[in-house]
Amino acid sequence: AAATGGSGKSAELRVTLEDLELPPRRDGSKAASGHGLEQALGMQGMPGTATPTSPGAGVAGRGPAPIVEELFPGCEPRGQQAFREDGLVGTEAQQLQLLAHYAELCEDFRHYQRTTRAEGAPRETDGAQLLLLSGPPGTGKTRHAVSFAHALGLPLLTARPPSAMATTGSSSAAWAAQLRREVSGHDCAIFLDEIDQHVRDDGFASSLRQFLDGVCQPTSSRVIVLGTTNRLELLPKDVVHRAEVVTFAKPEASHLAEMWAGHAQHLGVEELKHLAHASARATATGRDVRHCASLCERRTAIAWLNNQGAQGYCHGAAMANCPGPTL
Q1: pTM value > 0.70
Q2: HEC secondary structure over the chain
């Protein structure tokens, strides 16, 4: 947004979702109330359906085993604050790109669709949206996927690919239809880690297409499919075309300094800056910073204990000789 001051020059005003009070979600988001997967999916006690909290083989006479399993229940939406509370140091552009999807969960968005879409065009549409978090290992893709669900207040589910269901008698052609039934009527996020390992299977790729915008697309809920990958080039081009790609690159020195400060608040500004520049030269990731900080903490504690006459640490020498990270 731009505002014009008394001098006539335009000044840019930057507003983030953290500055705003999040509007209430629509009634269709009751799955995020934190009552557990059975109530969230509305399947408890339904004939011919296995209990969602039992991801194993299906019960004889009660239909196929469920595809989805709950990782985290829904909660009140926390917005951009969720990323900070979960200890993530990502770029604001990444986090706001993810948070923009909150709009689709609000009644105001439905009103906007009714106002802007022409007669005869689909209105108040639900369905599934694919988000691909792409970047090298250790750049925070998985942790951002979890915080994304917390930020929107959605339950985070994981789904078994069709290949994992082959022994239960379910074909890949039925995967999208069963997934559609299990999430029907409830907004949620579905997590597919390292999606490139599954999408190369033609059966899964076809099922995913049907779930995203084919005959098995959800019609009474908003489902966000979160896929992480460090090999985006291996995904079918039409699947990538259906997705919104959020790129995660190696952190810059300024971000690395903030990461180190979270693990070593006793260090001064110059010491943190020195660590950050050394980490940047080594192309370190956030995961590398956590591992290095943990290693330093262990070695410091072991050295102190071994210097105490009555508090010797029997494994101190062995742990001190373990090969550490490259930094």
Answers
A1: no
A2: CEEECCCCCEEECCCCHHHCCCCCECHHHHHHHCCCHHHHHCCCCCCCCCCCCCCCCCCCCCCCCCCEEEEECCCCCCCCHHHHHCCCCCCHHHHHHHHHHHHHHEHHHHHHHHHHCCCCCCCCCCEEEEEEEECCCCCCHHHHHHHHHHHHCCCEEEECCHHHHHHHCCCHHHHHHHHHHHHCCCCEEEEECCCHHHHCCHHHHHHHHHHHHCCCCCCCCEEEEEEEECCHHHCCHHHHHHEEEEECCCCCHHHHHHHHHHHCCCCCHHHHHHHHHHHHHCCCCHHHHHHHHHHHHHHHHHHHHHCCCCCCCCCHHHHHCCCCCCC
